[in-house]
Q: What sequence folds into this?
C-alpha cells in the first residue's frame, strides 16, 4: 500500500497539539503512516508533547509557516505527503479517503477537503458560516481547479518536487500559491466529504484585521503573482485563554523583496481589501435577498389591481401534513402553489398526485434541498433540477415550470440553468418564518401584517427532507390566515394566475368559483412583462 507522510508545523502549540496527534494516531488507513511534527522555534513544550506521543520531531529555527512546511516535507519519505495544522482535528478516515482518490484517479496530483471552524463566537460565525462558504463555492466552481487549505492538504511527492515545493516568500497563503503551480502537473481536487475541524481562535480574536490581511494578500497575489504580506500575527492559547502573547506575536524577519511592498503599498492594500469586502457584501446581498434580480429575472411579488395574494407551500409533500393542508384548502375553496422536493415526491407519490388532481399549481424545489444549492457547480444544480422534475412528472403527469431555489439563494450559474430549462424563478415577499417555533396565531398575525395586493406568501408543509419534522403550527395557521385575509377583502390565486399565466392552469383551477384572478402580469425587479411560460402542463 501507499506510504503516507503527515507533516504538522507547530509553533507554541502544546495545548492543542495533543488532540491533533491523537486524531492522526486513530486513522483507519491500513498502510504505513509517518507523522512528522516540525517544532518551529517554539518556546513552550511543543516538542516534548510530540515526542511523548512517539512521532518524529524535527526542528526549524527560521520562524514561518512555509519554512516549517519545507523542513517537514524534506524529512518526509512517503509517496503521498499530507499536512494539517496543529490546532486541527482530522476525521478517522482522512488518510484512507485521500489515498483512495489518488488510487482511483492517476491524473490527480493534489487532494484536500473543506475546513470546519469550531467554537466560533457570534461575530466569527458571520464569516465562517456565512461569507466563507460562499467564497468556497465560488472558488470550487473555477474550471482551473480549487485552492486547497493548508490544514487539509495532500500531494503526490513526485508532483510536489516537479512543481518546486514550498516557496518560502509565501508565508501567508502558501497553500493557495502551491495549489496553482500544481495544476500544471495534473488535477487538484477538493473533496466535499472530507472536512477537518480547526480552531476559530484567529477569527474570534482578530476578525477584521485577519479578513483585511487575507483578502488584500489574495487580491495582490492574483494581480501581481507575489505576496503582499510576509507574515501574520499568531494567536495562541495562554493560561487557559485564547489571546496573543508576546512570544506568540513575534513577527518573522522580513525577506528580501521590493521596498514598496513593505511601506508604500499599505494604503493600496487597504483599498483592495475594502473593495473586496464591498464586492463580497454586494454579491451576498444580491444572492440572499428574495427581491433581487441581479443574477436573472426573479418574481417575488405580483403587480395586480385587485386584492389578491398567492399562498405557496415549500418542502412537501410531507405526511400527514400535506394531506391535512389539502383538506383545508378544499374546504376553503382555495388553490395554492406547491414547490415540491423530488425526494419527498418519491416518498409520497400519491399525495403529489392529489395536489395536481385538485387543481393546485406545482413547482420544482430541487431534488434534495441541499444547503446553498445555488453556490454549487452548474452541473450539480442541473442534476438537482432534472431529478426533481422527473420525480414530479412521474407522480403527477405534470411538468413543473416554476422553480423556487432552496433558502431563496440565487447565483449567475443557477440563473443560467433555469434559463436553459425554461424555468421561472419565484421567491416571495411575505414570509412569517414558520420554520421557527411559533404558535398558529403568531404565524397568522405575521402573515396578515405583511400582506398586500399581489403578495407571495411563503409557508412550509414540510421541512427540507426530514420525514419527522413537526408542521402542525403551520397547518393550523392556514385557516386563520385565509379567514383574516378574506375579512380584509383579499382573494387567493396561484402563482400562475398572479403572473398572468392562466391559459395553462389545470382545468380544476380554471373552473373553481373560489379563485379570484389577478388582472395584470407579475412583477419582478426587471421591467414588467407577461411571461409566455406554462405554470404546469399536462403530459397526458
A:
Amino acid at each position: 500500500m501507499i506510504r503516507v507522510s503527515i507533516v504538522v508545523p507547530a509553533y507554541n502549540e502544546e495545548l492543542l497539539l495533543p488532540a491533533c496527534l491523537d486524531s492522526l494516531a486513530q486513522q483507519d488507513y491500513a498502510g504505513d503512516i509517518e507523522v512528522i511534527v516540525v517544532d518551529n522555534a517554539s518556546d513552550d513544550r511543543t516538542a516534548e508533547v510530540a515526542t511523548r506521543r512517539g512521532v518524529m520531531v524535527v526542528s526549524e529555527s527560521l520562524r514561518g509557516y512555509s519554512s516549517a512546511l519545507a523542513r517537514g516535507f524534506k524529512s518526509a519519505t512517503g509517496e503521498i505527503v499530507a499536512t494539517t495544522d496543529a490546532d486541527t482535528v482530522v476525521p478517522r478516515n482522512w488518510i484512507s479517503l485521500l489515498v483512495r482518490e489518488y488510487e482511483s484517479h492517476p491524473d490527480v496530483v493534489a487532494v484536500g477537503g473543506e475546513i470546519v471552524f469550531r467554537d466560533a463566537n457570534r461575530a466569527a460565525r458571520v464569516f465562517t458560516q456565512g461569507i466563507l462558504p460562499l467564497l468556497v463555492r465560488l472558488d470550487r466552481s473555477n474550471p482551473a481547479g480549487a485552492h486547497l487549505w493548508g490544514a487539509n492538504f495532500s500531494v503526490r511527492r513526485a508532483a510536489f518536487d516537479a512543481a518546486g515545493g514550498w516557496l518560502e516568500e509565501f508565508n501567508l497563503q502558501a497553500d493557495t500559491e502551491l495549489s496553482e503551480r500544481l495544476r500544471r502537473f495534473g488535477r487538484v481536487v477538493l473533496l466535499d466529504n472530507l472536512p477537518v475541524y480547526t480552531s476559530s481562535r484567529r477569527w474570534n480574536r482578530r476578525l477584521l484585521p485577519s479578513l483585511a490581511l487575507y483578502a488584500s494578500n489574495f487580491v495582490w497575489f492574483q494581480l501581481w503573482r507575489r505576496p503582499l504580506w510576509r507574515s501574520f500575527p499568531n494567536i495562541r492559547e495562554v493560561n487557559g485563554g485564547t489571546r496573543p502573547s508576546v512570544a506568540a506575536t513575534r513577527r518573522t524577519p522580513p525577506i528580501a523583496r521590493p521596498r514598496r511592498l513593505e511601506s508604500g503599498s499599505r494604503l493600496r492594500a487597504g483599498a483592495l481589501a475594502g473593495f473586496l469586502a464591498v464586492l463580497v457584501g454586494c454579491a451576498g446581498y444580491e444572492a440572499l435577498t428574495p427581491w433581487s434580480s441581479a443574477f436573472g429575472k426573479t418574481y417575488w411579488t405580483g403587480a395586480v389591481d385587485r386584492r389578491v395574494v398567492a399562498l405557496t407551500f415549500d418542502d412537501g409533500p410531507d405526511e400527514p401534513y400535506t394531506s391535512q393542508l389539502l383538506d383545508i384548502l378544499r374546504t376553503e375553496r382555495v388553490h395554492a402553489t406547491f414547490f415540491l422536493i423530488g425526494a419527498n415526491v418519491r416518498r409520497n407519490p400519491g399525495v403529489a398526485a392529489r395536489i395536481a388532481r385538485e387543481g393546485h399549481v406545482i413547482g420544482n424545489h430541487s431534488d434534495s434541498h441541499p444547503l446553498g444549492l445555488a453556490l454549487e457547480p452548474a452541473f450539480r444544480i442541473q442534476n438537482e433540477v432534472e431529478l426533481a422534475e422527473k420525480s414530479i412528472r412521474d407522480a403527477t403527469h405534470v411538468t413543473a415550470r416554476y422553480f423556487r431555489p432552496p433558502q431563496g439563494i440565487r447565483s449567475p450559474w443557477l440563473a443560467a440553468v433555469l434559463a436553459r430549462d425554461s424555468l421561472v424563478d419565484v421567491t416571495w415577499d411575505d414570509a412569517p418564518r414558520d420554520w421557527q417555533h411559533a404558535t398558529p396565531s403568531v404565524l397568522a398575525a405575521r402573515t396578515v401584517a405583511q400582506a398586500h395586493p399581489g403578495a407571495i406568501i411563503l409557508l412550509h408543509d414540510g421541512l427540507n427532507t426530514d420525514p419527522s419534522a413537526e408542521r402542525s403550527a403551520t397547518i393550523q395557521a392556514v385557516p386563520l390566515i385565509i379567514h383574516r385575509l378574506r375579512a380584509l377583502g383579499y382573494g387567493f390565486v396561484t402563482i400562475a394566475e398572479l403572473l398572468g399565466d392562466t391559459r395553462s392552469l389545470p382545468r380544476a383551477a380554471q373552473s373553481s368559483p373560489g379563485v379570484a384572478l389577478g388582472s395584470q402580469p407579475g412583477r419582478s425587479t426587471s421591467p414588467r412583462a407577461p411571461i409566455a411560460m406554462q405554470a404546469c402542463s399536462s403530459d397526458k
The chain has two domains: 4-202, 298-538. Confidence is low (pLDDT under 50) at residues 239-266, 507-540. Residues 298-538 form a domain with the TIM Barrel fold (CATH 3.20.20.370).
